[in-house]
Specification:
Blueprint (H helix, E strand, L loop, with lengths): L2 H4 L8 E5 L3 H7 L4 H22 L3 E8 L7 H24 L2 E6 L7 H14 L5 E9 L1 H17 L10 H5 L12 E4 L18 E4 L9 H12 L9 H6 L1
Parallel strand pairs: 1-2, 1-5, 2-4, 3-4, 5-6
The structure holds farnesyl diphosphate (FPP).
Farnesyl diphosphate binds next to α2, α3, β2 and α4.
Length: 248
């Protein structure tokens, strides 16, 4: 079925965020090593980007590695970092040709050198692309991001560059790593867990949350279209009553 038959292109989320969960369980179900699941997860990332581009979603943010993920066995951490370098190196040409811009959030300086360098190179190369922005959250913690913003705010106040009593939400948002990225309208978490896990805590305030049992390696084009379809059936009230939304 064509995507135009099931989703309303006038009511697309501009920004979709993903907590890509279940790679390990997917691999275990097939008697395979966890890294086999992560490698299959990269294929889902590629398919989701391709589909999003095709239908016209402008921003995707993907939680690829949290600050908590460092506690995993070193073999898995190393495998994930290698996969990341491999994916960036192999995909950057195609991303660039397709007008995809790469951004990151999180402390990427804390990643292994070759990871950091390949990310910097890919970001530099794709920085003027306009079709779709892919934001990879790497070594990311939302609490850390908010804390860093609060520290910057304090510094600016100490230097008398701003008046703390006048600071608005929009001003604070400008101090976050996502400062030029609109908030996501939709968050998708795969694999049946219903948690936010320290992801985009500020930015998700009004986001629609969508949880699916599908493990990330099985989350492909059809699953994305289904999630967007579910999003489009919801009524986003932003604290108002239904009648107010219908009138607007
Ligand atoms: C969660 O599954 C997944 C991760 C922590 C890593 C996600 C990373 C990728 C899909 C590869 C990233 C690559 C690019 C290019 C973005 P899990 O291991 O926690 O699964 P489990 O809960 O079943 O154990």
């Amino acid at each position: 079925m064509d995507y135009k038959d099931i989703i309303d292109l006038q009511n697309l989320p501009k920004h979709i965020a993903f907590i890509m969960d279940g790679n390990g369980r997917w691999a275990k179900n097939q008697g395979q090593h966890r890294l086999f699941g992560h490698a299959a997860g990269v294929e889902s990332v590629k398919e989701v980007i391709k589909t999003a581009r095709e239908i016209g979603v402008s921003y995707l943010t993907m939680y690829a590695f949290s600050t908590e993920n460092w506690s995993r066995p070193s073999e898995e951490v190393e495998g994930l970092m290698n996969l990341l370098v491999e994916a960036i190196t192999n995909e950057v040409d195609e991303m660039h040709q397709n007008g995809v811009r790469l951004l990151t959030i999180g402390n990427i300086k804390g990643l292994p050198g070759k990871c950091y360098e390949s990310l910097l190179e890919a970001m530099e190369r794709t920085k003027n692309n306009k079709n779709l922005t892919l934001v990879l959250a790497l070594n990311y913690s939302a609490r850390q991001e908010i804390l860093e913003a609060a520290k910057k705010l304090t510094e600016l106040a100490q230097k008398q560059e701003l008046d703390v009593t006048q600071v608005k939400e929009e001003d604070f948002a400008q101090l976050l790593q996502t400062k030029d990225i609109p908030d996501p309208e939709l968050l998708i978490r795969t694999s049946g867990e219903c948690r936010i896990s320290n992801f985009l805590l500020w930015q998700l305030s009004y986001t629609e949350l969508y949880f699916t049992e599908i493990h990330w390696p099985d989350f492909r084009r059809e699953a994305l279209l289904e999630a967007i379809c579910a999003y489009q059936k919801r009524e986003r009230r932003f604290g108002m009553v239904s009648e107010q939304i219908q009138k607007a």
